[in-house]
Amino acid sequence: MKFFVMQGVRKSALFLRYLTSLITGKGFRAKYVSGTLLQSETPINLLFLGSNDHISEIFFEDIVKTEFLGSFHPLIWGQARSRFIRPGTDIIIVPHLPWNRLTNNTYVIPAYLESKLSLPTTKDEFMVSLKGNNRRIVKQGLKNGIEFEQANTEKDYREFYEQMFIPLVTNRHGVNAFVSSFSSIYSKAANATLIFAKLNRKRVGGVQLIWPNFFKSYSYFNKIGMINEIIHDPKRFSQVNMALYYQMCCLSIEKRCFCLNLGIVPPLLNNGLLWFKESYPALP
Fold first, then answer.
1. How many domains are contained in the chain?
2. 242, 137 in Cβ contact below 8 A?
């Protein structure tokens, strides 16, 4: 009964947050994107009206030009469409709102996918459930001396944030990186565990794992980071990365969590993060 109550409260909270975003109009913006259609040489012009920039990427082989046109309130998206549309526009992407009318020419895709990993009752069962390549990488990493340490002090979080989280995010995304603030990560420390991976007693990577509360019935993977030395070594990066995911699952099993939420990913089939998380078993 407690599980169903928590799930109901969580869904209500998400719905209220969604309604609030509609009322305040925060995050809705217009941009014009010109580029080449995916897997073709056809040029296309796209008008994006929404809150999730990843959606526009699904159409392009390589984005050539992006122009920010302004912000708008979702209650008047029709006026925004008339305001921002240009001659020669091939595709218009709009938010799927209750008052939007869908036509036969409308292509509907989700703003994001939420990846939840069902967990067995023991760590041995989890190891067996891993797909062959993932299991092999985890075993290699543990054999090569990867150890784990749990931490939770502000000093530990500073080390994780400055030496691991920022380097990984900026290496992955360059000038387009969105770097969460230290305060936003550390504010969750009271209900989280910071897991460090160590090689030769040196901290080389870390991950923040948030535990269930009244609104969540599962553990939640929040942020991950690596030191530069590991980031630029593909083999060790793979081992440390998989070892951290493995340890998150093991700790969640120890805490008797039935599920680990691996976070959201853009619904793009060419997204490496999507395929990495899909490689775990029992993802809905």
1. 2
2. yes
